[in-house]
Automatic annotation (TrEMBL):
This is Deoxyfructose oxidoreductase. Residues 134-252 form the GFO/IDH/MocA-like oxidoreductase domain. It comes from the Bacteria. PANTHER family: OXIDOREDUCTASES, TRANS-1,2-DIHYDROBENZENE-1,2-DIOL DEHYDROGENASE. Belongs to the Gfo/Idh/MocA family. Pfam families: GFO_IDH_MocA (PF01408), GFO_IDH_MocA_C3 (PF22725). Keywords: Oxidoreductase. The keyword Acetylation does not apply. The keyword Oxidoreductase applies. It comes from Paenibacillus cisolokensis. Residues 5-123 form the Gfo/Idh/MocA-like oxidoreductase N-terminal domain. InterPro entries: Gfo/Idh/MocA-like_OxRdtase_N (IPR000683), Gfo/Idh/MocA_domain (IPR050984), GFO_IDH_MocA-like_dom (IPR055170), NAD(P)-bd_dom_sf (IPR036291).
Length: 329
């Protein structure tokens, strides 16, 4: 009989209901065994809606369940550290929604506590688990588009009218940089295999939305005079794009993080579309996580990677507030 990783879901967030829970069910390795909410009625309603066997009226109860191997945490950002550490101390492996924490210091503490408890900790950037990014890196390494001169990426959407949205609470880790700016930052680090040196960001800090950044445009400096330019928003038309610009060509990804996985390559020998299989990125993420838990493969993206991504986010947020270039230590 094949192994199965038994998942508990901490919270009834939309991303869990529409993406991660279906993803676990589409995976080769996992089952959703329980869901918890701070309101038992809400947990029961969600469990019934999604056919989940167990419902708990507190997160603590779920963590006490010996039949749960791992938890997925899609809670508001300010709760990520607390419940990751509690889960680790309860012996549960943790897949924590992005951004992993409010800052790099919190992320490092989470990594340390999980290491001490001997559990796997991963940040939920699902797009990285699709094979198209391995293919894009392969094209870059081949030299087909020459030396990389720059990366431009966007992730924008408009939810400004939903005034009760947790993303508009500054003390809860709200704002576009935390919510979607983290994607362009992570993809640039992934493709360049390097850590940035400095960041400069200009942002729309909206008084209507608790002064969180509803739109931000940034320049992130990498070694070798290569830069990421990006924009992210929760108050702009939808897009999620990526362009990798080289000396001899470029790669354009029209749906970089969500949507169809195909992309175009423009090189000296002409242009082509690389058509990739449409796969459930959340299922791929769940499978990679399970195989790491079982010791069948090394972890693809370590907690140290999450800490380094938070260092860049810290710099971007500080730059947006101070209107200054911030060096990343």
């Amino acid at each position: 009989m094949s192994k199965t990783l038994r998942w508990g879901i901490i919270g009834c967030a939309g991303i869990a209901k529409r993406a991660m829970i279906p993803g676990i069910r589409h995976s080769q390795t996992g089952v959703v065994a329980a869901i918890a909410s701070r309101e038992l009625s809400k947990a029961r309603e969600t469990a019934e809606e999604l056919d989940i066997p167990k419902a708990y009226g507190s997160y603590e109860e779920l963590l006490l369940d010996p039949e749960i191997d791992a938890v997925y945490i899609p809670l508001p950002n300010h709760l990520h550290m607390e419940w990751t550490i509690r889960a680790a101390k309860a012996g549960k492996h943790v897949l924590c929604e992005k951004p992993i924490a409010l800052n790099a210091e919190e992320a490092q503490r989470m990594a340390d506590e999980c290491a001490k408890a001997g559990v796997v900790l991963a940040e939920a950037f699902m797009y990285r688990h699709h094979p198209r990014y391995d293919r894009i890196k392969e094209i870059i390494r081949s030299g087909e588009i020459g030396d990389i001169r720059g990366i431009h990426s966007t992730f924008t959407f408009n939810s400004a009218g939903h005034k009760g949205n947790v993303r508009f609470r500054k003390d809860w880790g709200g704002g576009a940089i935390y919510d979607v700016g983290c994607y362009p930052i992570s993809v640039a680090r992934l493709l360049l295999d390097a850590e940035p040196e400095a960041a400069t960001v200009h942002a729309l800090l909206s008084p209507e939305h608790d002064h969180v950044d509803m739109m931000a445009s940034g320049l992130v400096e990498f070694p070798g005079s290569v830069a990421l330019t990006f924009d992210c928003a929760m108050w702009a038309a939808f897009r999620n794009t990526l362009e990798v610009l080289g000396t001899d060509g470029r790669i354009e990804v029209p749906s970089a993080f969500i949507g169809e996985p195909h992309f175009k390559v423009y090189a000296k020998d002409g242009e082509r579309e690389e058509r990739m299989e449409t796969l459930d990125q959340y299922a791929l993420q769940a499978d990679d996580f399970a195989r790491t838990v079982w010791g069948e493969q090394p972890q693809r993206f370590s907690p140290a990677d999450a800490v380094n991504n938070m260092k860049v986010i810290d710099a971007c947020l500080r730059s947006a507030e101070t209107r200054e270039r911030v060096v990343i230590s």
